[in-house]
Amino acid sequence: MRLPRTLSGKELIAALGKLGYTVTRQSGSHIRLTTDVNGIHHVTIPDHRPLKVGTLSAILQDVAAHHGVDREELVRRLF
Question: Residue 70 belongs to what domain range?
């Protein structure tokens, strides 16, 4: 499945909310999310519009690894 090309940082934050991620802090245009699901995990999302494809891919790969699923499954769950 192809990654969305026009996804903003705020839209990704809303999608990750489905997995239990909540905003814990913000420094400039970078927002840090934390979840307690499957152990504590932190991820930093830049509040850019749109997110660069490589940045989005790296974030999703990190989240997928934490949740024990492959990236394709994670993309199906979120979008």
Answer: 9-78
Tell me if 21 is assigned to some domain: yes
Query: What digits encode the pLDDT tens for the residues 62-71?
Result: 999 999 999 9
CA dihedral 33, 30, 16, 57 (to 10 degrees): -120
Q: Is 24 exposed, middle or buried (0-12, 13-18, 19+ CB in 10 A)?
A: exposed
Amino acid at 7: L
Query: Looking at the 3D structure of the chain, how many domains does it have?
Result: 1
- Cβ distance 22 to 50 under 8 Å? no
